Amino acid sequence: MRDEFELPNGDTVTEGDVILHDNYPFRVVFPDDDEYALELSPLYWGDSGMDVPFRDRDALREQWAPDSRGTLTPEEWSEWLRTARRDDRFGDDELDELERELPTADGPVERLRRLLGL
Length: 118
Description:
This protein is an alpha+beta fold.
């Protein structure tokens, strides 16, 4: 089993890290089998059968979209959430759950204020 994996942008990730791939947050998973080197599990839709497996770094590079950024800082995740809230492709329930999962720069008081619409 792998301990780390280098993304096409040069970021090195470990099991459980969250990355931005194709403008959506995914959790890094290292499968227990030898067929795939890496799976990306959508953070909100995880365990739904929507995981994306990759045999190796080259396979991931082929699907690395222009809006894939790899790991983000807490401030960048906060900005991604603010932008996503203005995008009608994302539902409020989905973004609320993502906000609870993502390592954002906002503290619990700011999150509560936003959830209450204050």
